[in-house]
Amino acid sequence: MTAAIDFYFDFSSPYGYFASTRIDELAQKYGRIVAWHPILLGVVFKTTGSAPLPQVPLKGDYAWRDFERTARFHGIEYKRPAHFPLPTTQAARAVLWLQNHHGDDIATAFAKAVFHAYFVDDINIAEPAELVKLAESLGIDGRAMDAGASSFQIKDQLKAEIEVAMAKGVFGSPFVIVDGEPFWGFDRFDQIEAHLKSRRPTELRAVPGKGSNPDSDTDSSKEKQPA
Amino acid sequence: MTAAIDFYFDFSSPYGYFASTRIDELAQKYGRIVAWHPILLGVVFKTTGSAPLPQVPLKGDYAWRDFERTARFHGIEYKRPAHFPLPTTQAARAVLWLQNHHGDDIATAFAKAVFHAYFVDDINIAEPAELVKLAESLGIDGRAMDAGASSFQIKDQLKAEIEVAMAKGVFGSPFVIVDGEPFWGFDRFDQIEAHLKSRRPTELRAVPGKGSNPDSDTDSSKEKQPA
């Protein structure tokens, strides 16, 4: 039994973009699949009282610097977009519509294309016309997607999806939940990998855990203590 | 010429504590020394509009979980303190007084002892009497330190030190500045190490950088692009 990894992101989040370039690969390595969940940080920030990093005093300049340095450190293509942040509502709705009508694979391919368009090609992804073009480059009927993404049904679904995410404790982007364990930030990918490794089916592990020895009288709570 | 690494921290910051257990070791590996700068996040947060992580809606529960998981991941001793956050003004002032009167080595040893007392032994480091005890365990005259830390001179110095830090862009804990490059968070220690590695004196490098070849017509700006 391998449960999906839940990946929450806002299309205007640079760290969300970085995560989007690695999450599928990481999951695959451990035989997992990824459920992609577009959210709107604007809605979340109303609850947490936060603001986009580049708009916070003192943090702003640092954030721009860190986006670039982090991209370079991890070897990820990145170009500072001219417009930031921008509304990502239509893009998020388009992903939901694609998931409903074309399945996860096409929806995920579209989501990756949107991130790449924004953070590499500096395309204004708030423009519905740009989203239509991106969809068509993937063989998707862009006009149908645009109409569907603008329907009341999808608008309501996005609102509800964000409510669900917040109920699960999601408060930022990227946010990953694996087996009930929450991870906030691209800089937790090392800990996500450690978690996935620890949850691999036993037959794949080189060394079985100590707890698997029924003769052991080790206090299992000790395993939680630092080495 | 090897400049000091500036390390800013608040004693009530768990990630600051984690950083305090690794920063000297990391610096030493690259022939650097560390200048320890106690600051007060309460003062900084007035400018950034932030609050201690565990007090932010939604982020609170996550933060406690992440402190523990991060400690375990990095093999750092950690026990959730009963009182959090607590006032760290007297501890910060004591470090400054020790730097002024006993030098950096003793001040740093005391700072490490304070962090350990708070995040491992659950000692209330807001209590001046506890700080005196810690000092005496290190052979420091605790009463002299307590009196010195309470002087107007040291109070003014701490205020001024925090002003300087903020003028340099410091807005959180831990915050590290190396050769003018700012790094926020314990989760940037991998990027700090990459920076230190790139700044090692040339004779120590195994492979000289491409830019060192005067015959090369490579556009050096390309080195900044992701691989």
UniProtKB/TrEMBL annotation, chains A, B:
Record's catalysed reaction(s): 2-hydroxychromene-2-carboxylate = (3E)-4-(2-hydroxyphenyl)-2-oxobut-3-enoate
Domain DSBA-like thioredoxin: 5-197
SUPFAM superfamilies for the chain: Thioredoxin-like (SSF52833)
Keywords tagged on the record: Isomerase
An example Gene Ontology molecular-function term: isomerase activity
The keyword Isomerase is annotated on this UniProt entry: yes
Class of the enzyme per the UniProt entry, highest EC level: isomerase
Domain of life assignment: Bacteria
Keyword flag Transcription: no
EC number: 5.99.1.4
Alphabetized Pfam families for the sequence: DSBA (PF01323)
Entry-linked InterPro entries: DSBA-like_thioredoxin_dom, GST_Kappa/NadH, HCCAis_GSTk, NahD-like, Thioredoxin-like_sf
Segments for region (Disordered): 200-227
PANTHER family tied to this protein: GLUTATHIONE S-TRANSFERASE KAPPA, GLUTATHIONE S-TRANSFERASE KAPPA 1
Family, similarity comment: Belongs to the GST superfamily. NadH family.
Name of the protein: 2-hydroxychromene-2-carboxylate isomerase
Organism: Cupriavidus basilensis
